[in-house]
């Protein structure tokens, strides 16, 4: 049976109540303190202190200090004024029990309301966080869309500039050809005129030589020889006739059937590859400390491939970096560096290198189909790692257009579709 504590003391002001309850051996965390607006209870076995207050208090502001065998309560009155006594008039055990139950029930309701309010606040915070994350993802998606749109605009601009340059070159060639034909025509006219003039002179000489000679002249034996010598001096061989030499080059044959071939695109791809090879030595003069083999982008590519195969992705990236510094027109260097960035979790750099490789792998021809397939797969994987599944699915679908029979790509694309739709994949 608990021991009721009655030797407490209390004091008050207009707004506060101070209660001192001595409990032998009481320590913080050992005493069970329960307080409502009109009920106060302390349970520290075997001691029990409870009191029904004279008036209401604000339990949210009230406090208790426990230590040195005593508990000091500081209670704030709801209404200012002096109390006639601390407890209310003596009540029966039944009323005290009822008051205790009501206080406990009120405390439970209040705790439940506080928990409900806390849960609502938590859901509000989670909703706010989710909205913020969705906004960040939307901003990132818009930024990537803007980057892609800018890339498309740049590619279109470069293509238009190339078409304009090609048109100007063709126009210049046409003018040069017309000029050459005109000069050739003038030269032919001059040759024909010279031929006619020479023919007239030959006829004139022949007419003079065919006349019958004078007898005195024949006897002298000199006149006929003079005409013969003059005719020999006047006869000049006619110039050779002009002509054209036709040169036929053996055309490059692609494996694509002629009815399906895109000859212009294939020739453009070959031209870009030739320009890339010619640009290999453009920046070597600025890298004087390199060894001879380190000045070869192909050697650096093979070196990077070996480092990648051994798992040293950072060193492989450095090899590809130097190769790109020597020649920034080779798509395989960007493609291989994108694979390194995927391994190193540099996802944005992997997307950038894959996009650059795709820009260099234009126009799309059968010779670069394998490289374009790898570029789409690596960029799609980076998008999916960033949880940008819509963009990743677009790259996987582009890869399937290149190789529709690839089972692995088909399965990966189907998994991404399930993630986007929020449905579990078929087992």
UniProtKB/TrEMBL annotation:
GO biological process, any: inner dynein arm assembly
Any single Pfam family the record assigns to this protein: CS
UniProt KW Repeat keyword: yes
A single GO molecular function term of this UniProt record: nuclear estrogen receptor binding
UniProt KW keywords: Cell projection, Coiled coil, Cytoplasm, Neurogenesis, Nucleus, Repeat, TPR repeat
SUPFAM superfamilies: HSP20-like chaperones, TPR-like
Residue span, CS domain: 3-87
TPR repeats: 373-406
Coiled coil feature spans: 93-211
Cellular compartment(s): Cell projection, Neuron projection; Dynein axonemal particle; Nucleus
GO CC aspect terms: dynein axonemal particle; extracellular region; neuron projection; nucleus
This protein's name: Dynein axonemal assembly factor 4
Organism: Scyliorhinus torazame (Cloudy catshark)
């Amino acid at each position: 049976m608990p021991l009721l504590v009655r030797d407490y003391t209390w004091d008050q002001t207009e707004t506060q109540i101070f209660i001192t309850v001595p409990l032998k051996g009481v320590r913080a965390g050992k005493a069970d303190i329960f307080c409502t607006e009109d009920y106060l209870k302390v349970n520290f076995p075997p001691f029990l202190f409870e009191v029904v207050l004279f008036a209401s208090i604000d339990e949210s502001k009230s406090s208790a200090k426990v230590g040195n065998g005593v508990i000091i309560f500081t209670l704030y009155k709801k209404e200012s004024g002096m109390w006639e006594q601390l407890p209310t008039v003596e009540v029966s055990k039944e009323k005290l029990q009822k008051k205790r139950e009501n206080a406990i029930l009120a405390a439970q309701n209040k705790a439940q309301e506080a928990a409900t309010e806390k849960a609502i606040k938590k859901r509000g915070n989670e909703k706010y966080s989710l909205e913020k994350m969705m906004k960040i993802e939307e901003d990132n998606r818009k930024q990537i869309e803007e980057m892609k749109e800018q890339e498309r605009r740049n590619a279109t601009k470069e293509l238009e500039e190339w078409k304009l340059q090609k048109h100007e070159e063709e126009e210049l060639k046409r003018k040069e050809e017309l000029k050459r034909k005109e000069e050739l025509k003038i030269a032919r006219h001059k040759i024909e005129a010279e031929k006619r003039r020479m023919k007239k002179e030959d006829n004139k000489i022949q007419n003079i030589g065919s006349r019958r000679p004078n007898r005195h002249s024949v006897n002298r034996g000199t006149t006929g020889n003079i005409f013969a010598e003059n005719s020999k001096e006047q006869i000049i061989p006619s110039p050779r006739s002009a002509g054209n030499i036709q040169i036929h080059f053996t055309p490059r044959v692609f494996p694509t059937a002629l009815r399906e071939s895109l000859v212009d695109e294939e020739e453009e791809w070959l031209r870009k590859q030739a320009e890339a090879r010619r640009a290999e030595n453009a920046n070597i003069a600025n890298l004087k400390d390199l060894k001879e083999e380190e000045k070869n982008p192909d050697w650096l590519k093979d070196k990077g491939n070996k480092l990648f195969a051994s798992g040293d992705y950072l060193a492989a990236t450095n090899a590809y970096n130097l190769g790109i510094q020597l020649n920034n027109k080779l798509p395989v260097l960007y493609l291989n560096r994108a694979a390194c960035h995927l391994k190193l979790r540099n996802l944005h750099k992997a997307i950038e290198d894959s996009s650059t490789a795709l820009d260099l792998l234009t126009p799309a021809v059968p010779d670069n189909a394998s490289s374009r397939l790898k570029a789409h797969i690596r960029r799609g994987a980076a998008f999916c790692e960033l949880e940008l599944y819509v963009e990743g699915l677009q790259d996987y679908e582009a890869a399937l257009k290149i190789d529709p029979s690839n089972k692995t790509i088909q399965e990966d694309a189907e998994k991404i579709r399930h993630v986007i739709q929020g449905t579990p994949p078929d087992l």
